Every structure is written in structure tokens, then in C-alpha cells.
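Please, structure for the following, as C-alpha cells.
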Amino acid sequence: MTAPANHRELLAWQEAIKLAVLVYEETARFPRVELFGLTAQLRKSVVSIPSNIAEGAARNSTKELVQFLGYASGSRAETDSQLEIATRLGFVRAGSEVFRQVERVGRLITALRKSLQNRVESSEA
């Protein structure tokens, strides 16, 4: 069983790109003193989400895509945690669109991962 031919076809990747853009827009308003702190950390973690999805899709098997979706899920959780810190510091407004997008991306990654994992398990049986 092979992975999708193109990562751009995956809704999870498309929505993760939207999330990355939102995070970049939010962090552009952070205090300058955070440029090498929370701003850099948030940008790195959010860019890892679509990057891992793309890398997994470019691998040789669905099993590898499932593994990279796990990495993307971890980066999504990291992004969520950093956004929470930014909110508590007053840098991001609670209830901002970026939080809804984090949740959407998380649901999409989880659903895709479960679906593909089921296919992998049924093909191994």
C-alpha cells in the first residue's frame, strides 16, 4: 500500500499551512524581546506540522506516513502549548482564530492517522 502521490492533496496539510500563516501573523505582533524566544519557538513548531505531513507523504509507504503524522501531531501539541503561554503573557487574545485552527488541524491529523493506521493493520493481517 502506498502513500498519497502528493501531500498537497491532503486536507490536513492544507489546513496546517493555514495555521502556519496565522501563527506568523500573530507572532509578528509579539514584543521584539521575544524574537529569539517564544516567537522563534512557535514559528519552528508550527512549520514542523505541514513539513512532517509532506515528508511522510513523500515516503515509500502508508506506514511511514502514519509515523510522520505522529510527529506532526506532536508539533501541533507543542504549538498549542506555546500559544497558551503566549495567551497567558498577553501576546495572543484568548479565543483567537489561531486556536480554532490548531484544533481543526489536530482533528484532521488524528482522523487521517487513524484511517491510515486501520488500512495498514488490515493489510498486515
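The chain has a mean pLDDT of 94. The first helix runs from residue 11 to 27.
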